[in-house]
Amino acid sequence: MRCHHFDAGRCRSCTLLGVPRPQRLAAAQEQVAQLLEPFFGPGAGLGEPIVGADSGFRARGKMAVGGTAQAPLLTLPGQSAGTDLCDCPLYPDGVEEVLEGAKALIRRAQIPPYDVARRRGEIKNVLVTTTPDGEHQLRFVLRSDKALPRLVEHLPRLLKAHPSVIAVSANLHPEHTTAVEGATEIPLHGPAAIPVRTGDVTLFAPPGSFLQTHTEVAGQLYRQAAAWIAALPAARHAGMRIWDLYCGLGGFALHAARALPSALITGVEVSAAAIAGAREGADALGAEHTTFLAGDATQWAKETTQGADGPPDAVIVNPPRRGLGEELTTWLEGSGVTDVVYSSCNPTTLAKDLERIPSYRIAQARFVDMFPHTRHAEVLTRLVRT
What we know:
Blueprint lengths: L3 H4 L13 H16 L23 E8 L4 E4 L19 H15 L13 E8 L5 E7 L5 H14 L3 E8 L11 E6 L4 E5 L2 E5 L9 H16 L10 E5 L5 H9 L4 E6 L2 H14 L4 E5 L2 H9 L8 E4 L7 H11 L3 E6 L2 H10 L3 E9 L9 E8 L1
Parallel strand pairs: 4-5, 9-10, 9-12, 10-11, 12-13
Antiparallel strand pairs: 1-2, 1-3, 3-4, 5-6, 7-8, 13-15, 14-15
Helix pairs in contact: 3-4, 5-6, 8-9
């Protein structure tokens, strides 16, 4: 991928853009393999990496608003405030036009960009989600509701000019922090969640929910996890029980349900909005044996294991960057669960978690190139109790 902003030194978000892809992948694979080597079972190692397009792939854009109300700019957090990055080549076709439409709305509504140093202004960020079908969700992050009436007044013109925008909301973020968004979401147009075809299912993403950055790669990730689970001995029996902890929008659970229609699958996630999206995905798939619950995954697993049915046949975990932590790994080590699929967005915390569950060894693993041109590494592992 070539980027004129990178070549000109205006943006350095893609820190490894100048490194050829085969070289970057080989170095990343070697680093992850060395980190996980103590935990590999006999004959195990990293398989072929999961890769996808290295441009036009980014499902979500988080643009910081700069400039003035008369001449707004959309840049990336941490990059030069004077550089407009609406034409970032990481975004799929159509995103640049939608972001230009957002700038036009800000200009017409005369909403002043938030000045971090002076703590003045109203609009902080513009967030866009794009689907493989070319539809878009727009979110305007505001310091307060002061400018909301002007935004609403000028919104119809944006919607007419950009019919691909099917959902719009305003997010109120009054705190002076580095967080991109606040806790209050105000729907302005369209459905509560937009459909995002990912792999073999459709995920329904409400505002603020976690969505994998690279939709194509995410689809391969979910398919691989489902294939590993479908190949387990327990999958030969009707009623196989699978728990998906930190299930988010249900990508892993729904792919497992598609591969094993008779399996009893439960997904648990603390975000009620994400669970609502996951349930919508289950309804769309017709996954009648799949249940999604809003709650703390660790507490739910500990309490449910004590019930009459005991532990499940397999567990899927997809924790945040901090990893599973001591409490959940302690439960997992003593649970008796034989098979675990662990999707990690931080191999360092994965290694720490594996140290806490010495009864398990990695049977299969694949590096996941979710963030091309960066040092970010993800890895999908299949763990077997030894």
